[in-house]
Amino acid sequence: MKFFIxxxxxxxxxxxxxxxxxxxxxxxxxxxxLAVQIANRSAVATFRAGIDVVAGRANLExxxxxxxxxFPALQNLQGVAAATPLVEPLVTLPDYPGEYLHILGIDPFTxxxxxxxxxxxxxxxxxxxxxxxxxxxxxxxxxxxxAAHHLKRGDKLRVAFGERQVDLVLSSLLEATDGNSHFxxxxxxxxxxxxxxxxxxxxxxxxxxxxxxxxxxxxxxxxIVPPDAVVDQPGDRGRQVEQMVSGFQLNLTxxxxxxxxxxxxxxxxxxxxxxxxxxxEIGILRALGVSRTRIRWLxxxxxxxxxxxxxxFGIAGGVLLANFLVFAVSETVTNLYVLASIEHxxxxxxxxxxxLAAGIGxxxxxxxxxxxxxxxxxxxxxxxxxxQVNRWERPGSNWILLSGAGLVAAVIxxxxxxxxxxxxxxxxxxxxxxxxxxxxxxxxxxxxIWANALFRALLLPRLAARNLxxxxxxxxITVAALASALAMLxxxxxxxxxxxxxxxxxxxxxxxxxxxxxxxxxEILGFEDFVSEDLIHxxxxxxxxxxxxxxxxxxxxxxGQPVTLAVVIGTGRNPPEFVGGGDLAKYRxxxxxxxxIISEPLSRRLKLNQGDRATVATPMGLRKFRVAGVFYDYSxxxxxxxxxxxNYEKFWHDPRIxxxxxxLRPGTRVEDVIQKIQVEFxxxxxxxxxxxxxxxxxxxxxxDQTFAVTQVLRLIALLVAMIGIALNVAVLVREREREIGILRAxxxxxxxxxxxxxxESLLVGMNAIVLGSAAGIGLSFVLTEVVNKAFFGWTIxxxxxxxxxxxxxxxxxxxxALASLHQADQASRCKIVEAxxxxx
Length: 840
Fold this sequence. Notes:
By secondary structure, the chain is an alpha+beta fold. Helices cover 58% and strands 16% of the residues. The longest helix is centred in the middle third of the chain and has 45 residues, at 292-336.
């Protein structure tokens, strides 16, 4: 401990600026990793908490559209200890834009064995039965919701659903053990009447007499409920949602770990700087008999110290960064998967050991090589600071071989990922990045030679190019660090650009109608509300309308898994593009009896191809539908099954419609039609109207929200790498202190020394741009062709955003110069006599 305090802690306190940079480099990587874990965990915990609030202490649940006449039979089944019915309408709140409530219509007489919340008056902890049963508009809201919106007992709360807006009266509060504030409750009878669900239930909760073996009860229930009803344990739905979002979360985790990888390179430079600064100390300690092992642990201990302190600060920074990431993740999950409102942070305590291991471990990994170099430094060479060995002046062929091995490993990992082991896709990305990083010595050396030839007539730039080669052992690491961050920036930008182009082409083909109409509540709730028959009749009657297409969205069970079913009817003006071509023939087959088409992600998920049969649970029992084709679709990564309305109504007898696409007669202005509808149709305020252009803008708004979280990760990784340039210059200035003194002694001015250091930093930046851009394009191929297909199943043509890549030098080179300003100024102010006398 005394040795640690004397030679590690005292050194860190004596070099506060360097210590702060070291700690910051670790803290940034750790904070990004932890923030992503908090955001991911918060999303999953929110889903689970919501399920717990609804299901309470139930062992089984039945979901679907159920006749409430079934409830007595379910309640009296052998093996059922208790049962309670639910209806669960979703409503929006016009007075609070963007807000919604998930209303639980409950039966207080049968709900008590299940409840995971307490209902109390807003003024005291008792249940007010008079208000609950006596007022058909009585509602209980979460206490946190009431507090956030300054609501008290007796206040009115306006809710919207379908074409109706109704004032409910706050009579009670919900005190839930967990969950979010968007849950509310009212009497099931009043809820059925208010929301048009008379005689219907959406869920029945069951407590089995033998909770350890619910199988017999499950089979008995399935014999009496409709064939399309889902009977499972409440936790199963949570696991389904977790599985649904796992790919998205795993991709975020992989991106966050790039910052840790960059940090490994920076710690290498950090400890190397320490070795250079403490050469005389190493020589004295070795001369006094201190073993190589203790010297090695001296520098490993320094790395561990910075890693530990940096990790602790990173934990605090991760919690702060999670404030933004949780919001971004919530938006993305809602847009792509399920309605989510992440209101609470869930700090995964089990992640703390992993975070500590990641932070300290990355620091130790980065310190191993320079610690070994310092430990094996001969005492005489260590004491004579004028002796500097320029290693790697000509990089060996081993680096080319290592690069080739990394890229071969990337190819093998890619094949494994596409064969079914999805996680291998990240191994492919890692090996690709490592493969390009191993080219850093070779690329830096070649660039130094070319720069030397290019600036042959200019002394200082030529000297900077020569220094690039002489200090290859130092510059190659910095170039690799900066190139890694730049590769992530380029690869993710390329992937997003390619995806955007694919979506743009898909929209050109699919969004061809002039006007799109859907219930306004669906903008928040998803496909929950329906277009009224009155509006359909009105639209068909006005002379400006040439044709209508309709769309219905629901979840069904196909091949034993939940699947989104899209029911369409229309003019056929927007047929999808099919995998393998033959669009016209496949689209015609789509109209045949008992035929469906499925999207590419669903084809991969269910392992179904053209000609196969999908088994779908319908109200009339299990039915097989032939797959007429597999089509390209970018609306959801879980996939979609599309069915003609005629086939749907044979089995579901459900005429409801979620949205309408309107084709106008030539010469008709969309804005005029929208204005006409809003004036003439009585309930027009309950609908959203989008022109073709407006809907495309809305789609890309959602697209940009989806990838907002990646912007933070990319910027932070780049910030970590820029710290590396500052460290690199600090090390080089220390190594060349005597050389700089000699240059000053022979007449080189301070501005020239300043320019020499800046020029060298710019050359490092140019090397990083070349290597990082190449690595980014290679990595983007892995992301689009391997990771994307393995996790999401989309086919995306790789498109390179050359305009973005060509602009990289415009901001990266000034950043490199800015990062080296302080050290360049320090070098230009060196004391000539002391610098030259170092080797005396």
